[in-house]
Structure to design on (195 residues):
């Protein structure tokens, strides 16, 4: 009988001792154990968001005014987490088809595109081609809602007979009028005749 009582007491002691050990390891300081779990959960959530927000081979086609069309294509795109109307695009080409004027071709490494108003900011290795005119810059922004565009940052304009270096070019998308200028008033626009 003594043996039976000793086994029963041992079993009764094992339960509280195991509970105390469990409490000491996992429940006594919850910040230590849950910190890693919360961090892992946040990382998983970010990964899930990134995976669901990425799209390959994107094409947007829009009519922004009368008979003028705008098509933008990208090898890769990702929705902006703060604004679902905005896409962050990679390896981008855009084409503006102007009524009675031909087309303007734009390319860049990166761009930000708004699917509601079609405004687009092209940046990194920006190239613009219109007939025999070529413009290179760091940035090119199209504001369809304001009917203007602007190029800035190391702007180089080339045609068959002229090369021009400036800080900024603004173009009215309706009248096609442009304004070329330097941001620093003491510097001058550099124009070279290629003849």
């Amino acid at each position: 009988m003594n043996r039976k009582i000793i086994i029963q007491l041992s079993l009764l002691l094992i339960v509280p001792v195991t509970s105390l050990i469990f409490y000491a390891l996992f429940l006594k300081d919850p910040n230590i154990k849950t910190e890693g779990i919360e961090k892992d959960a946040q990382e998983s959530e970010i990964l899930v968001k990134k995976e669901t927000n990425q799209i390959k081979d994107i094409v947007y086609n829009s009519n922004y005014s009368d008979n003028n069309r705008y098509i933008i294509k990208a090898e890769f795109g990702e929705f902006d987490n703060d604004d679902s109307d905005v896409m962050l695009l990679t390896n981008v080409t855009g084409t503006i088809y102007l009524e009675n004027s031909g087309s303007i071709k734009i390319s860049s490494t990166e761009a930000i595109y708004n699917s509601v108003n079609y405004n687009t900011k092209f940046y990194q290795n920006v190239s613009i081609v219109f007939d025999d005119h070529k413009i290179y810059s760091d940035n090119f922004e199209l504001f369809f809602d304001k009917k203007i565009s602007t190029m800035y940052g190391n702007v180089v304009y080339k045609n068959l007979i002229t090369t021009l270096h400036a800080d900024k070019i603004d173009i009215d998308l309706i009248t096609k009028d442009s304004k070329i200028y330097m941001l620093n008033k003491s510097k001058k626009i550099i124009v070279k005749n290629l003849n």
User: Anything to note?
Assistant: Residues 29-51 have pLDDT under 50 and may be disordered. The chain has one domain: 53-193. Residues 66 and 104 are 17 Å apart (CA to CA).
